[in-house]
Design a protein that fits this description.
By secondary structure, the protein is mostly beta strands. It has a single domain (8-322), classed as 3 Solenoid (Pectate Lyase C-like), CATH 2.160.20. Helix content is 6%, strand content 38%. It has 1 helix and 32 strands. The strands form 2 sheets. It has a 19-stranded parallel beta sheet that branches. A 13-stranded parallel beta sheet has the order 2-5-8-10-12-14-16-19-22-25-27-29-31, with no helix packed on it. The chain is elongated, with a radius of gyration of 25 Å. 45% of the residues are buried.
Length: 327
């Protein structure tokens, strides 16, 4: 028997075979597991949700498997000033999801001390005695997260390649946000009134974008390596420099403001810096300090206590300035 199929019929039949095979070859996701008390979450791929508020003496929820999802369902986990609200207890696990609730009054609200690749969203981890969120390993995504009034740092991630957006990190006792290695981004966030540095990124190739960094007791933004950038952000009324590049080359500030800081508006220690569409006014130190060779375009630096613009010469040649307003 000869069976003839048109190209469309053949494609439709092939898709149906693949779809049926895919459905048969994969088990359905397990139903979410309710949580009514603190304990250990040890099912790989397990999805858990809180049925009510939880209270703990010491640690509350312990992650003990990969691919664990925790939905707080708008509830609050409250400690007695010890332990962590959610922790890996120093074991290494990946792909945690933590969302939709509040964590209060632990040493660390979230303590992933040997884990990474976490997704944390719609979460408030505030009023803890040390860090709001601590993550040791890389590649995390934090969105719509609040970490206010913690005794340590609001958010401390000791690795690379994390993306933070819509973050509130205010009033923390040891800095707002600290990201230790390369290739991290902070977008659309507010970091204010922290003791110490507002935002500190110690590796290369990291960016602060569309964020407000204000009234921190130290520098507003500190980017400590090369190839970093501040874009469409403001850093104002901080106790140190507004934006500080203490080492390394090839950094940039674009479409940003650094006004009214106690130190220098923008302090760039190494060469090949780029400033475009930047304001640095009314700072207690200088406006902009940079070595040549570098470039400015549409830079405004006025009414600073020190030099509005300091460009120190190097053997690489002079700086290029276009549409400069720095009397």
């Amino acid at each position: 028997m000869n069976i003839k199929l048109t190209a469309r019929q053949f494609t439709t039949a092939l898709f149906a075979i693949l779809l049926i095979g895919g459905l048969c070859g994969h088990a359905r996701a397990a139903a979410p597991t309710p949580i009514a008390a603190c304990g250990t979450l040890s099912t790989p791929g397990g999805n858990y949700f809180l049925t009510g508020n939880l209270s703990a003496s010491g640690n509350c929820l312990v992650i003990a498997a990969d691919n664990v999802g925790i939905d707080l369902k708008g509830k609050t986990i409250t400690g007695n000033g010890t332990g962590s609200g959610i922790t890996d207890l120093g074991a290494s696990f990946s792909f945690q999801i933590i969302e939709n609730g509040k964590i209060r009054n632990f040493v660390n609200g979230i303590n992933l001390s040997n884990s990474g690749e976490a997704i944390i969203s719609n979460l408030d981890s505030s009023h803890n005695t040390n860090d709001g969120i601590f993550i040791r390993e890389c590649c995390n995504t934090l969105n719509s997260v609040t970490t206010d009034n913690n005794g340590g740092t609001g958010i401390d991630i000791d690795s690379d390649d994390s993306s933070l957006s819509n973050i509130q990190a205010n009033g923390n006792a040891s800095g707002g946000i600290f990201l230790a290695e390369c290739c991290n981004t902070l977008v659309g966030s507010t970091v204010t009134k922290n003791t110490g540095i507002g935002v500190e990124m110690d590796g290369c190739c990291s960016f602060v974008i569309g964020s407000k960094i204000q009234k921190n007791s130290g520098d507003g933004i500190k980017l400590a390596s090369d190839d970093n950038g501040v874009i469409k952000s403001s850093s104002s009324a901080n106790g140190g420099d507004g934006i500080d590049f203490p080492s390394s080359t090839d950094n940039m500030v674009t479409a940003s403001k650094s006004n009214g800081n106690a130190g220098t508006g923008i302090d760039m220690v190494e060469k090949w810096g780029i400033f475009s569409g930047v304001q640095a006014n009314n700072n207690g130190g200088g406006g902009v300090s940079m070595p040549c060779r570098g470039s400015t375009a549409s830079l405004t630096a006025k009414k600073n206590s020190g030099s509005n613009l300091s460009q120190s010469p190097t053997t690489d040649g002079p700086c290029a300035n276009v549409n400069l307003k720095a009397p």
